[in-house]
Amino acid sequence: MTEEPRDLTELYHLLELATYNHVLVKNASGGQRKALSIYLAFLLNKPIILLDEPFADLDLMKKKQLASFLKKDIEQTQRIIVIISHEVAGFESLFNEIYILKEGQLADCGTLEALEEKYSNPVFKGIEGIYFEVTGKVLGGQVG
Fold this sequence. Notes:
Blueprint: H1 9-14, H2 30-43, E1 48-52, H3 60-77, E2 80-84, E3 98-102, E4 105-110, H4 112-118, H5 126-135, E5 137-138, E6 141-142
Parallel strand pairs: 1-2
Antiparallel strand pairs: 3-4, 5-6
């Protein structure tokens, strides 16, 4: 699956790791630690990677570049990448399956197409609308 080490130069530059290679991890900012944790997850070259809020603290260009990197990695390695995020708009092409939690319990799951068919008239477009239909909440907060 992912036996061969992968060239991570693109990810290294995307995350701008060279700009703080002189900083001790204990002194790194939250964004620097996030970037380092993403890089290390891929450096370990495991068949399953868990990314918790990988797009947080990134500017729009970096978010798009990271999404592009993740999409290529999935296609080239057949690696499973689990993305936990409140920020999903524009990243729908990354997700084969979507799992929606409500109060810590699985409330619904399926492909984007199946969920769009099931929730055909959501208040919002895309995953955000489906999430709202299932939970009554907007990603990142509650309505009302």
